[in-house]
Structures are given as structure tokens and as C-alpha cells.
Amino acid sequence: MPASRIALQKHDKLERNRQEIEACILQRLRKHRAGLVDDFRMIDISILVLAKNEAANIGQCLEAVFGQKGAGAFEVIVVDSGSTDGTLEVARRYPVRLEEIPAGTFHHARTRNYAAGLAKGEILVYLAADAFPVTENWLSAHVGNFDDERVGAVYGRHLPKPGSNFEREDALGAVYGEQRLVKEAATRERLGYRYYHMSTVNAAIRRNVWAATRFPEELKVFEDLGIAKRILDGGWKIVYEPRASVYHSHEYTTTRLFKRYFDIGYTLRQLGIWNQMTRASMLRDAWKLARRKVARFGENEDSLKAGAALSQDLAKSAGMFLGLNERFLPLAVKRRMSAFQVYE
Q: How far is CA 68 from CA 89, 96, 98, 133, 156, in A?
């Protein structure tokens, strides 16, 4: 056979192979755009749900997650830390990867790092098992912000669940407003104490940013504040995206709020982010909230609720003050004041 004919046949074979490869790529792109997943394609997003004894909530949470549209392929990993109430049985009704850890090994930062290490996605989405995405566009609202390669993390809005008290409504409204925020060095002074605020109840982090920063395991609580500081100080942006909203709130007793805010004050001091700027902005917002509650005293049906909320705000302020100045307190007293046992 002439050499020219052999060369032509080889060329034809290579061309057929190229066309087959292109056809395969186009087929997978069509599936990607349609939101379909096969066993061979990359997972774009990993949704990480941490749970313990959430049988009453996790079904509603996962139902909303699997109803998401327009965000691309995602996996869901549920990390359960010793549930005894049927949480596992509810979770198994959904196509999730279920990982179990002993209750005694749970640690706010370490367990979040563990969950991230299990994930395949380039975007890590943290969602509390008792947080319910409000719309089917919750996930795409998070992910769309990562078109800017300088964005390291995104966190979404918390809306109080129906029936929440005034204290929760006002507290959530103060830090989870309607306006989208982009946090970077240029906005630090304007945002004040909200600059480092982020909640992994409802947040997304770029995988390589998590790998470079990780949740600080020296913190027993408020690990989201710790990683937010690392992300922003590392030069990335954090976006607050109100369209990525969830229903999430807890009813705290006055004593619990005092102890919780003691730990917040302690953590702010430990991370070195309590200064004149954060103090001034926090006092300004606290004064606004107090005035709002006082204004409700004229409304008969709301007077008792407003009074209870105002007393809770005073308890939070006292707890915060003592937490910020915990170094002057005896260890035995500090241990009794801490909600999360931050003292050994």
C-alpha cells in the first residue's frame, strides 16, 4: 500500500477520534446546562449539613436543598454527631452521603474542617440542619458571587422563623439586612463590627480559600468569625448576599443570651478585633435597637414583649462587657459565665 494512502488512513482515524471526543464533551456540556449529573462528571458544589438530633427539622431542610434550581451539579454530605431522635432515618430518605461521628468528638471548627475534607466540590456550602432555604434560587444566589475570583466566601440572610420574639427579630435585622455588602479592606471602617461577621449557618466558601485558611481549631465556638478574619486578612473578599436567605432563629432565655454574649466578647478580644471602630459601631446599633423597643411600649399588646426584649438586650450588653474584660475575673466565675465552656 502506498505510503500516502497509509498516511491518509491514519489522518482519517485521528479525525474520527477527535470528532467522537468533541461529541462526548458537547453531550456532557448539555447535561451540565440541563442540571443533570452522571457518575463521571465533576461535582461543582458540596453542601455540608451538620446535624445532631434534628429529626424535626432536617427533612424540611433537605427538601428545600433538593428543590434548588440553576446552580449546577451538587452533592449533599450530612455529618451527624450522635443523633438519637431519628435524624439518621430522615436523612436516609434523601440522596445524601451520611457520615457519623461520635457525639463526644464534635467541635465547631474541627468538625467543619472534617466535613470540608470529605467534599468533592470546588464550592463548599455550609447549611445548618435547622435552617430552611427560602427559595429555589438560594444556592444559585450564593454561587453567582464566585464569578469574581477575589471572592473567598459568601454568607446569606437569616430570617426569623414565624413566632420569633422581638429580641431575635431585631438582632437578626441588625446584621442581616436587605442590602448586599462586599467586604474588603476599603469597606472595613464603614462596616465596623459587621466587617468580620459571617455565619456558617448559611454560607459558601471557595474550596481553595478554605484550604488556605481553615476554621481555627483553637476556637471552641464562633469559628465562623475566626475564618472570616483569616479570609479578609488574607486579601479575599466576603460577600453578604441577602438573596441567599434562610429561615433560621432560636429562642434564647435571658440567662443563655448573657452567657452567649460573654463568649462573644471573649472571642472578639481573643481574635484582636475589638477596637474603637468596632466598639463605636456596636454601641450605635445597640442604641438604635433599644430606641425601637422603647417605642413599642405605647402599643398595648406589644408592651410586655418589648419589655422582655429590652431586658434581654441589657443582659447581652452585660455579658459582652464582662467577656471583653474576662481577664479581671476569677477562673471559677468565668467558667460559670461561659455558654460554650471556653475555659478548660
A: 22, 15, 20, 9, 15
Q: Is residue 323 part of a domain?
A: yes
Read off the pLDDT of residues 293-327 as tens digits, 9 standing for 90 and up: 787 776 666 777 788 888 999 999 999 999 999 99
- In eight-state DSSP terms, residue 194 is G
Question: What are the CA-CA distances from residue 27 to residues 18, 176, 280 (Å)?
Answer: 14, 41, 57
Q: CA-CA distance, 82 to 15, in Å (whole number)?
A: 57
Quick one: cell of 320? Answer: 459582652
User: Per-residue DSSP letters for 87-103?
Assistant: HHHHHTTSS-EEEE--G
Q: What is the reported pTM?
A: 0.85
* 227 lies in the same domain as 319: no
Range of the domain at 312: 254-337
Q: How far apart are CA 78 and CA 74, in angstroms?
A: 13
Quote the pLDDT of residue 302: 72
